[in-house]
């Protein structure tokens, strides 16, 4: 592959027409994230961080602008999001504030599911799921249902699920917001490790200033725009 960034967002905007006028949720944001890079996204509530993640993750279309993955344009104003489902599944791992695990599946089954959706044989998917959980210090919890896990453990399972297909891009929206500072730090250190050892491009939205030392780069959002530090 060329030296193109894993994620390249160009002049991305998302405007909403509301009763009170036009809301510029995102207003011309450009950002590249390279393989192995951990980027932190900070900014006040309502500044457009989640909107940015939804667009960069191909979950919503922009009003204007483009999203490129590894040198290929994948999203723009008229893109067909349904047609991008495979791209999302294979190339992007998502982690949100809530783990959103499937309650009647064990930890390892939750991780294996995303592999089975990508046509991996169930036995292989489970074996890989166990290995992944072990790397996140969850081997002893692999067969538990989510309700038997602590919040931090559930969130680590969600991280394992996001990593299952070894996506080159990981997008996380306040993944530690529901965790105490120790658990939150652990999850952030996992993202640091994923970028460092797997060479994934990782973008994490967070409000937590205690994690700033882990990032390669930090960007700030304000009123739908990226502002200088
Ligand atoms: N569907 C929508 N219709 C109208 N306005 C919207 C819509 N979705 C988001 N917005 C507005 O866009 C702006 C950006 O929202 P966004 O959720 O991206 O902010 P955020 O930075 O993630 O905030 P937080 O830190 O609270 O999660 C906000 O003013 C929000 O009200
Ligand atoms: Mg948000």
TrEMBL record:
The keyword Isomerase does not apply. Keywords: ATP-binding, Cell inner membrane, Cell membrane, Membrane, Nucleotide-binding, Translocase, Transport. GO terms for molecular function: ATP binding; ATP hydrolysis activity; transmembrane transporter activity. It holds the Pfam family ABC_tran. One of its GO terms (cellular component) is plasma membrane. Residues 7-227 form the ABC transporter domain. InterPro entries: AAA+_ATPase, ABC_transporter-like_ATP-bd, ABC_transporter-like_CS, ABC_transpr_LolD-like, MacB-like_ATP-bd, P-loop_NTPase. Belongs to the ABC transporter superfamily. Macrolide exporter (TC 3.A.1.122) family. This is ABC transporter related protein.
């Amino acid at each position: 592959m060329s030296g193109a960034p894993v994620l390249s967002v160009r002049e991305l905007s998302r405007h909403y027409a509301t009763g009170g006028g036009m809301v510029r949720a995102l207003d011309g944001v450009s950002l590249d994230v390279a393989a192995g890079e951990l980027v932190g996204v900070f900014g006040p509530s309502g500044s457009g961080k989640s909107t940015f993640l939804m667009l960069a993750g191909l979950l919503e279309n922009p009003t204007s602008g483009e999203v490129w993955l590894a040198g290929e344009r994948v999203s723009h104003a008229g893109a067909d999001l349904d047609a991008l489902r495979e791209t999302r599944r294979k190339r992007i791992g998502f982690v949100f504030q809530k783990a959103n695990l499937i309650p009647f599946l064990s930890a390892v089954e939750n991780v294996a599911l995303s592999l089975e959706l990508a046509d991996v044989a169930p036995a292989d998917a489970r074996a890989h799921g166990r290995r992944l959980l072990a790397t996140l210090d969850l081997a002893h919890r692999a067969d538990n249902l989510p309700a038997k896990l602590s919040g931090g453990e559930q969130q680590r399972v969600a991280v394992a699920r996001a990593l299952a297909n070894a996506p080159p891009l990981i997008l996380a929206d306040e993944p530690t917001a529901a965790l105490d500072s120790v658990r939150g730090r652990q999850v952030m250190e996992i993202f640091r490790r994923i970028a460092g050892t797997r060479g994934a491009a990782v973008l994490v939205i967070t409000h937590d200033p205690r994690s700033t030392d882990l990032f390669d780069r930090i960007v700030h959002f304000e009123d739908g725009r990226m502002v200088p530090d």
